[in-house]
């Protein structure tokens, strides 16, 4: 079977049983659940602290009706950051490299913010299509541009996450295959590629966490506009 | 036991699914239809030859 560089992104299956469900259930299995104890163990305390800090940070600029989304956005952040970072381990499948999954998150959540804005405060939601202080001759053009940018948002959200993770995984595969070839042929050049691979892996760990944060942050910004 | 677990789960998430997340289900429905159309081309059964 001829393998290409993109074979790592195929949804894994074992005898026609899709294993992507196991990959998606991993974040649920990794994190401990809340207990009824007054003082928890270190891991659970650290997890609770992180979630509390993150939720407070994200929801500080959002009005109180939007705080109902705290559970959704905090759990989405934890889910994405776990999938992204776990996907950097060798031989793991990263579900967030699949555009279908990322669009499955981006479109419903973006649409929910738009529908929420149009239902609760339609004048203000439509008012976002025209920035304040716009010169009168530019108003028609700017409304068209703002409408296009509104509809581009979910596509950008989904494609940003997909492209960043896919590109990172591809680069790691390219440079690691170059390294493995060069080790026997030109060891001196291989040391350079090994260093590059190490730095790239560090970058990809950062990108994995940042992209999950950016996804949730942008959703919170869209919520802030509409609530 | 299973029914009790489902009841406990619904007691925790029910208030979210019934009120704030209703807007999300519109998008979930739209995405389901889109994925169905892409995966199966709108056909329920493959034509048998």
What would you say this structure looks like, in words?
The complex is a heterodimer of chains A (227) and B (49). Chain A has 227 residues and is mostly helical. Chain A has one domain (45-226). Chain A contains 7 helices and 2 strands; from the N terminus they run E-E-H-H-H-H-H-H-H. Chain A has helices at 20-30, 42-59, 70-86, 99-120, 122-127, 139-185, 187-226; strands spanning 13-14, 17-18. In chain A, strands 1-2 form a two-stranded antiparallel ribbon. In chain A, helix 3 packs antiparallel against helix 7, helix 4 (99-120) packs antiparallel against helix 6 and helix 4 (99-120) packs parallel to helix 7. Chain A is globular. The N and C termini of chain A lie far apart (53 Å). Chain B has 49 residues and is mainly α. Chain B has a domain at 15-41. Chain B is 73% helix and 0% strand. Chain B is built from 2 helices and no strands. Chain B is elongated, with a radius of gyration of 17 Å. The N and C termini of chain B lie far apart (48 Å). The mean pLDDT of chain B is 86. At the A-B interface, helix 4 of A face helix 2 of B.
What's the structural domain tally of chain A?
1
Q: What helical percentage do the residues of chain B reach?
A: over 70%
Task: Tell me the radius of gyration of chain B.
Answer: 17 Å
- Biggest contact: A-B, 17 and 13 residues
* CA-CA gap between termini of chain A: 53 Å
How many helices of chain A? 7
Ranges of chain B where pLDDT stays below 50 over 5 or more residues in a row are: none
Radius of gyration of chain A: 22 Å
Oligomer: heterodimer
Distance between the termini of chain B: 48 Å
Taking strands numbered 1, 2, ... along the chain, how are they ordered across the largest sheet of chain A?
Answer: 1-2
Give the number of DSSP strands of chain B. 0
Average pLDDT confidence of chain A is: 93
Shape, principal axes of CA atoms of chain A: globular
């Amino acid at each position: 079977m001829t393998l290409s560089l993109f074979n790592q992104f195929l949804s894994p299956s074992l005898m026609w049983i899709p294993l992507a469900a196991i990959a998606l259930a991993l974040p649920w299995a990794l994190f401990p659940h809340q207990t009824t104890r007054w003082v928890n163990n270190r891991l659970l305390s650290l997890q609770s602290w992180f979630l509390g800090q993150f939720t407070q940070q994200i929801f500080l600029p959002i009005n109180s009706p939007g705080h109902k989304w705290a559970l959704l956005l905090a759990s989405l952040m934890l889910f994405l950051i776990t999938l992204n970072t776990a996907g950097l381990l060798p031989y793991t499948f990263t579900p967030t490299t699949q555009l279908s999954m990322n669009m499955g998150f981006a479109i419903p959540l973006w649409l929910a913010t738009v529908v929420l804005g149009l239902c609760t405060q339609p004048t203000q939601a439509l008012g976002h299509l025209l920035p304040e202080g716009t010169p009168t001759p530019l108003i028609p053009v700017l409304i068209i541009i703002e409408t296009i940018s509104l509809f581009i948002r979910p596509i950008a959200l989904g494609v940003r996450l997909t492209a960043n993770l896919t590109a990172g995984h591809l680069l790691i595969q390219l440079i690691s295959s170059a390294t493995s070839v060069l080790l026997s042929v030109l060891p001196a050049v291989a040391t350079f590629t090994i260093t590059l691979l190490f730095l790239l892996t560090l970058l990809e760990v950062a990108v994995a966490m940042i992209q999950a944060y950016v996804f949730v942050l942008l959703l919170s910004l869209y919520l802030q506009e509409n609530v | 036991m299973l029914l009790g677990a489902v009841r406990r789960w619904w007691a925790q998430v029910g208030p979210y699914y019934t009120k704030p997340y209703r807007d999300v289900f519109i998008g979930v429905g739209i995405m389901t239809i889109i994925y169905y159309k892409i995966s199966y081309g709108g056909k329920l059964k493959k034509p048998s030859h």
